[in-house]
Amino acid sequence: MFAEVDLAIDYSRRHVYKGVTKGQFEAITEAMKLLAEEDQERGMDAALQIACQGCGESRGRIGSVEYDGIRLCNRCATDFEVARISHAAGSCDEYVAKRRAGRN
Ligand SMILES: [Zn+2]
Q1: What is the 93 CA–ligand 1 centroid distance (Å)?
Q2: How far apart are the CA of 2 and the centre of ligand 1, in A?
Q3: Among 34-43, 47-56, 83-92, which stretch is predicted with the lowest mean pLDDT?
């Protein structure tokens, strides 16, 4: 007889992204949410759009972040912070170049 072992470990919840812990990911998303809230509190027009250099889409200016002259939408900025912390990307330049290569 074999002892029954519970192997139902939910690995998918351990790492949201490769190389980033759930705690790190939550800290990043929380910081990005705060940025968007601050923009709203400052009275930024919700209709303002930016041309995001990460995804190449026109997105809301609220919550967007500029890194060394490169503007990313809130979603891409979150993605970049995750890439940076997991060492998948060093600079924003490098991140944008990788995204661009992925689109071509
Ligand atoms: Zn974007």
Answers
A1: 14
A2: 52
A3: 83-92
Secondary structure element (H or E) that encloses residue 1, with its range: none
The pTM for the full model equals 0.80
d(CA 17, CA 97) in angstroms, rounded, equals: 20
Distance 79 CA to ligand 1 centre (A): 9
Q: Taking Cα atoms as reference points, which of 73, 68, 67 lies closest to residue 39?
A: 73
Give 67 Cα–ligand 1 centroid separation in angstroms. Answer: 13
Distance 9 CA to ligand 1 centre (A): 33
Rounded to 5 degrees, φ, ψ at 73 are -70, 165
For the chain, how far is it from start to end, CA to CA, in angstroms? 56
Task: Please compute Rg for the chain using Cα positions.
Answer: 18
Is 70 exceeded by the pLDDT of residue 1? no
Question: Residue 59 Cα, ligand 1 centroid: separation in angstroms?
Answer: 7
